[in-house]
Write a structure and sequence with these properties.
Elements lengths: L1 H29 L24 E2 L11 E3 L3 E2 L9 E5 L5 E2 L7 E5 L2 E5 L4 E4 L3 E3 L2 E2 L4 E5 L3 E3 L2 E2 L4 E3 L14 E3 L3 E3 L16 E3 L10 E2 L4 E5 L9 E6 L4 E2 L9 E2 L1 E6 L13 E7 L7 E9 L4 E4 L3 E2 L5 E7 L3 H4 L4 E10 L8 E11 L11 E3 L10 E4 L7 E6 L11 E9 L8 E8 L8 E8 L5 E9 L3 E4 L3 E2 L7 E6 L9 E10 L6 E12 L1
Parallel strand pairs: 1-3, 2-4, 4-15, 5-9, 6-8, 9-12, 10-13, 11-14
Antiparallel strand pairs: 6-7, 11-12, 14-16, 17-30, 18-23, 19-20, 20-30, 21-22, 23-29, 24-28, 24-30, 25-26, 25-27, 25-29, 31-42, 32-35, 33-34, 34-42, 35-41, 36-40, 36-42, 37-38, 37-39, 37-41
Length: about 525
């Protein structure tokens, strides 16, 4: 009887399944709108095979794919536009298909309804969803009961944990169980990133934008040639010649000309390591013309140039160069940026117009910090150690010398003496000032400079530290009014942290007559100047 019961059950089950198969075939032959699962236009076959349970199937769409599930009661969701394989393992999941062009698919208790939207959701027990969407996202399911997922035109990542939701994407992807699959390049899913270098000089205005040149070269903006925009900078250059070198004999010679900006504008951001690109056009028929970009930096102490590039006649030639390292730039900064060109190898340039356009700058390390050291005690007889009066050469009322009349500290005997004679009264607004200055100090932003100052007349005298930086910009410190004669007063100054790639040009003390009723005459002594 037991054997007979089992056989009878199997016969009934087979008959029941045959009925279901006939119903499904009828639906497939009469509908392409997916009311509860259908094959849409251009579709292929979607099948699922259940091992140890009952298997539900959902159709494949536009391009089609095959989905399968193993274990438990599992429903599979179709692949879409471009095809993909979605499979799930474990858990009890029912998923509903998404439609071509985006659809809203909801599944409650295993019934599928599809309507033209872009979101697919499912609720109610053991349900998973896998919508198709436009634009890239992540699909995940947790816990084996409810899975949610989004698939996208441009490909995306689909993952599931402890259950399964398979997602298909227009660009194609595979999602399986607890693994993560990344879709291939879909219709609009590729993202590229890059840096666009800003154009610093393009000469779209009416001037040469502070660029200058040699005495026999003329500059003007022009619409004759342009790399970008409608204008460029035209340089009319005289004839240039060269001679080829001779082995064991005369060296090669070349006449050159240049276009310069000194210093470059603060907005050019020519920080150490920045990439500079320029474009130059030379006339048709030109041969042997070479070009290079270069800077002079650290208060003119360092020259660095790009490799020379041979110009292409009748076309734009691109020059690329990297701003030198911080050790070559600071503390004095970039003092000049230029384009230089000449001829070589015995060739000549008959003279004519060249054009420069679209100079870009990007990147670089924006920091002026460093470690410098300075110490000045003025012990060398007759030497001011680089300190000097700063001002109009016609002014004769201030003289800077080394002196032994006063000294700060317990050792040594020298100091810097600033002799001031009949300094005019202060104007209605401001003071009458004289500068004692050190050019090209080896000090970096953020360092503290210490001065010791004494005067034999303090009436109306103000002492103010300062720096000239960022292309000779004025950076004043806090002024000090001396209160006692022949008494050392400490004055401190922090090198500004706002110094940019143009660097520090000078620093010193401004000595001012603040009186509006009388001139100032006296000797001011400076000693023990240090920073580290």
């Amino acid at each position: 009887m037991k054997t007979s019961y089992q056989m009878s059950t199997r016969v009934v089950g087979l008959a029941f399944l045959a009925g279901l198969w006939a119903t499904a075939c009828s639906l497939n032959n009469n509908s392409d709108k997916g009311a509860g699962g259908a094959v849409t236009k251009g579709g292929s076959t979607s099948s699922s095979t259940g091992s140890g349970g009952t298997t539900g199937t959902s159709p494949a769409q536009n391009g089609g794919a095959t989905t399968s599930s193993t274990g438990g009661t599992t429903g599979t969701s179709p692949a879409q536009n471009g095809g993909a394989t979605s499979s799930s393992t474990g858990g009890t999941t029912d998923t509903s298909p998404a439609q071509t062009g985006g659809a809203t698919s909801s599944n409650t208790g295993g019934t599928t309804t599809q309507t033209g939207g872009a979101t697919s959701g499912s609720t109610g027990g053991t349900t998973g969803t896998s919508p198709a969407q436009n634009g890239g996202a992540t699909s995940s399911s947790t816990g084996g009961t409810t899975g949610t997922g989004t698939a996208q035109n441009g490909g995306a990542t689909s993952s599931s944990t402890g259950g399964t939701t398979g997602t298909a994407q227009n660009g194609g992807a595979t999602s399986t169980g607890t693994t993560t699959a990344v879709g291939g390049g879909g219709a609009s899913g590729t993202t590229s990133t890059g840096t666009t270098c800003p154009i610093i000089w393009d000469w779209e205005g009416t001037t040469a934008d502070s660029w200058i040149t040699d005495a026999d070269v003329t500059l003007a903006v022009s619409t004759t040639q342009k790399f970008t925009g409608t204008q460029s900078l035209k340089a009319t250059i005289p004839a240039l010649t060269s001679t080829a070198g001779v082995d064991g004999g005369a060296a090669a010679t070349s006449t050159v000309r240049g276009l310069y900006i000194k210093p470059p504008s603060a907005t050019s951001n020519m920080w150490p390591g920045a990439t500079v690109t320029a474009h130059v056009w030379v006339p048709t028929g030109t041969t042997g013309v070479w070009m290079q970009l270069f800077t002079q930096s650290n208060n003119w102490a360092v020259w660095k140039n790009s490799p020379t590039t041979m110009a292409t006649a009748g076309a734009w030639t691109t020059l690329t160069w990297t701003v030198p390292a911080a050790t070559d730039v600071f503390p004095g900064g970039i003092n000049q940026f230029a384009l230089q060109l000449g001829v070589s190898g015995g060739n000549s340039f008959a003279g004519g117009d060249i054009f420069i356009d679209s100079i870009t700058v990007c990147g670089g390390t924006q920091s002026c910090s460093g470690t410098g050291a300075g110490s000045f005690d003025f012990e060398t007889a007759g030497s001011t150690d680089g300190w000097a009066f700063k001002g109009d050469t016609a002014i004769t009322d201030t003289v800077v010398t080394q002196s032994t009349a006063q000294h700060y500290g317990s050792s040594g005997s020298g100091s810097l003496k600033v002799a001031m004679t009949a300094i005019p009264v202060a104007p209605t607004i401001g003071w009458t000032s004289r500068l004692a200055e050190l050019a090209n100090p080896q000090a970096y932003c953020g360092q503290t400079v210490t001065y010791h100052v004494m005067a034999d007349n303090v009436t109306g005298l103000n002492v103010q530290p300062y720096a000239s930086a960022n292309g000779w910009g004025w950076f004043p410190g806090t002024g000090v009014t001396l209160t006692a004669i022949n008494t050392w007063t400490t004055v401190t100054f922090t090198v500004p942290p706002t110094i940019n790639f143009l660097g520090l040009q000078a620093m010193g003390l401004m000595l001012s007559n603040t009186s509006t009723s009388g001139t100032y005459t006296g000797n001011v002594y400076i000693d023990g100047v240090t920073w580290q």
